[in-house]
Amino acid sequence: MGARSWESWHGSNDVFNGNLRGTTDTDYFYFFCPKCPDNQILLVSDYIDDSNKTKRTKYGHKDIGIVFKIKCAKCSYKDYIKITNRGWQGGTFQNT
Ligand SMILES: [Zn+2]
Fold first, then answer.
1. Could you give the CA distance from residue 76 to residue 15 in angstroms, rounded to a whole number?
2. Model-level pTM greater than 0.70?
3. pLDDT at residue 30 in the model
């Protein structure tokens, strides 16, 4: 049984369209549960590094692609989120 691929780790509608929020304390970022009303901090339980070591972005930076598996200890919500430098890298956010 092989490792799960990047493609099989998809977030649900619960994280789409700005529904996933978070904050920092020092320089660490924390995600808030989109289901709980009181900013419950999500647990990050696993990740896949799908960065392409030979590829560069259009800005000349190393390609970065990481999927985090997240869950809430309070309500048992589970999901996936992705952080990458493949998409938007500037400009003003417009939720289309
Ligand atoms: Zn929760």
1. 15
2. yes
3. 97
* Ligand 1 geometric centre to CA of 47 (Å): 20
Give one word for 18, left, alpha or beta, with left for phi > 0 and alpha for psi -120 to 50.
left
Q: Catalogue the E-assigned strands of 1-96.
A: 22-24, 29-31, 43-49, 65-71, 78-84
What's the CA gap between 21 and 75, in Å, rounded?
17
Structure confidence by residue, pLDDT tens digits, 40-88: 999 999 999 999 999 999 999 999 999 999 999 999 999 999 999 998 8
User: Distance, CA 36 to ligand 1 centroid (Å)?
Assistant: 4
**How far does residue 10's CA lie from ligand 1's centre (Å)?**
19
With 90 as the cut, is the pLDDT of residue 8 above it?
A: no
- How many whole angstroms from 9 Cα to the centroid of ligand 1? 20
60 CA to centre of ligand 1 in angstroms: 39
